Amino acid sequence: MSLATSQASAKMKAYYRIKLPLPIITTIICIIAFVLLLYTERLNLFSSNSILKAKSCSRRDGFKKSSEKTEEKAEDMLIDDRFDFDPEECNVANGKWVFNRSIKPLYSDRSCPYLDRQVSCVKNGRPDSDYRHWEWQPEDCTLPRFDPELALKKLRGKRLLFVGDSLQRGQWQSFVCLVESIIPEEQKSMKRGRSHSVFKAKEYNATIEFYWAPFLVESNSDLHIIGDPKKRILKVDSVAKHAKNWMGVDILVFNTYVWWMSGLKIKSLWGSFSNGDEGYEELDAPVAYRIGLKTWANWVDSTVNPNNTRVFFTTMSPTHQRSADWNNKEGIKCFNETKPVKKKGHWGSGSDKRIMKVVSDVVGRMKVPVSVINVTQISEYRVDAHSSVYTETGGKLLTEDQKADPLHHADCIHWCLPGVPDTWNQILLAHL
């Protein structure tokens, strides 16, 4: 090959080396040009106002995310804006039951030796326990937990006497059980009587007592209980026989309701029982109740010195005999109920508003101030907390056959302890 040919060949190779990447170079140039054009078009597309909006949107999204996080934190750190309990300001009846597993009762029917078998539901075989973990929360204020030491300090050197029926006896037993566990064995005692029972906290020189007077006024069924309501006669104008046992007491807590609600007219007597069945008048329950409560109120006004004695009246404890009241049409009274009624303001047929009005009217006209502990509405929700078939009758536990017949044997009047009456005492202590 000649020198000229070699040189020509070299130039051709160099030429093709330069020419071969041109398509690639062209492509790259096109891409760059397209990007520049697109960028220019985007700049022309967005005005300054549009950019502000875009930034604003970006900030709004950021704020939204931040707000969501704040709300989540707020839910985690829920601020309770209810005010501290004030008996003059707080409507305790307005609120709800809140389930709280962490709430442990201050006693059990196995740990407290002073409970009647009638209300010792767990000991009697009740298998569920959720009814013991509901906490009453008023809507407007915070209700302080029951503090046994505080209760005993407030009772130092005093007598606290519960007066009324078996439901009041349950509240008395609840109060005793709430405080007794912090008292050394040698510093406490209990004396049970037919009509008057006394628990002593010796170190505090305090007594927590119960006096049996189911009507408050006298009746022929006070000590020797007459089972047939048709044969009961009430001396509606006198409390003297009972009231002599109420003298010198520092804190009196009264109740009366369920014995009046037999569904029959009340045989009401003025004067003496010496005439036997003669001389009585049959009155509708609310009418007889008003007369009897006025008799009680007159005794309080004429006898109690409000500088020395505090007087309380516990409103009626509801009965739950009709499951249709809380829309459980297949149910049998309170049997097998395990949750409270959720409907706000629920009011069943077991609470007589006529009786509530009588209490309001009579107490409202009294000279001696009486603190009304309104347990009716809060207890209305608690269809789950009665002793039901886990109770006794005639001093004996229900048999299996009786338990299988809740229509005739379920007790939907009395409450399991620990249970709802503990909340009544929580409210009472907050008022002391």
TrEMBL record:
MF terms in GO: O-acetyltransferase activity
Membrane topology, from the record: Single-pass membrane protein
GO terms for cellular component: Golgi apparatus; membrane
Compartment annotation: Membrane
Trichome birefringence-like N-terminal domain location: 88-141
Coiled-coil boundaries: none
Transmembrane segments: 20-39
Protein name: Protein trichome birefringence-like
Domain of life: Eukaryota
PANTHER family for the chain: PROTEIN TRICHOME BIREFRINGENCE-LIKE 3, PROTEIN TRICHOME BIREFRINGENCE-LIKE 9-RELATED
Record carries keyword Glycoprotein: no
Family to which this protein belongs: Belongs to the PC-esterase family. TBL subfamily.
Assigned keywords, A-Z: Membrane, Signal-anchor, Transmembrane, Transmembrane helix
Domain Trichome birefringence-like C-terminal: 143-430
